[in-house]
What we know:
Helix content is 42%, strand content 22%. The protein has helices at 2-14, 22-48, 61-71, 73-78, 99-115, 177-187, 220-225, 243-255, 266-275, 292-301, 316-325, 338-351, and strands at 57-60, 82-87, 94-97, 121-132, 135-144, 193-197, 201-212, 235-239, 259-263, 280-284, 308-312, 330-333.
Amino acid sequence: MYGVIGITNMFLEEHKEHVNNEHLHSLKFSARYLLALVNDILQINKMEEKKIVLENATFNLQSEMNTIINSLAFIADKNENVLRVEVDPAIPEFLIGDELRLSQILMNLISNALKFTHKGEVVVTAKLDNVLENIYYIEFIVSDNGIGIAKHDQEKIFDKFVQIERKDGDYQGTGLGLTIVKRLIELFNSKLVLESGENIGTTFSFKIGFLPDETLEKGMNAEVQSIAVGTGTFRILVVEDNKINQMVTKRIIERNHHECQIVDNGYDAIELVKKEKFDIILMDINMPMINGYETSRRIRDFGITTPIIALTAFDKNEVEPQAAASGIDGVIIKPFEPSELFQLIAGLVKNS
């Protein structure tokens, strides 16, 4: 999927005359749909096996909600909907919690609301419910005036692979979105509340408690995020056995004006870094002969301190502990946004 999505993006970037080609956009949509289906199925299995653990990190709620809204604007435009977000000013600017899981919940609920509302309005609200022992309990509400959900269907929508009211032209989803939402909310020790009526609209709501980050000064997070990307040329070694992935990664690197050298396996990487100097190493994890963990470990055994980033399709939570133990400095999940990769590269090179 990294190859399919990457090559499609490359073609659209390099051939601007095809930017409105409906077949290419259908290819890209289908690839992302398949990727979403695979990820959803994997995530459901992890939830059932209780392998997902919530993380605690500082994030800016207003900024995160704006990002979600912007990323879903194309669905709103397609159905001629108005999409509004309202954040209670009483909520602290910086909270501590699992930003990724909260984003997954909101993305699924908002995208559902937009898909089943036409020429209407979707309102996303975050309001402070109460504060108890310095935990800020926030109620999140996603409300629309769309087609609504019939009473007899309201229990079914949380079952795996179930979709209702599917007609020609409806969004072809996986039928897993609300299943994932419900289980993620349960991880937060909360409950998803549904109110809906046919041809009236639907409202989903839930409450989650967050600690405020009182030590983080305003603007500090923005400073961390604004590490200069692209200041100077980096010499990057890519360790990857898949030829298509090699081509996509190399093109991303060179289009951002950095130097790229590729090796097919870990043994060649070890020999090369003993003789030549690189600013960063991009390491595939799942390689034949010797995997990315062992390759990184052996590179460190030679006293080589070049930052290593794992490029992998595995779940980040599963990879990070073993990656850190192997001397890997960061993890990027494929397919990735180039800006995300180069921001991480810039930070690691600066620190090294």
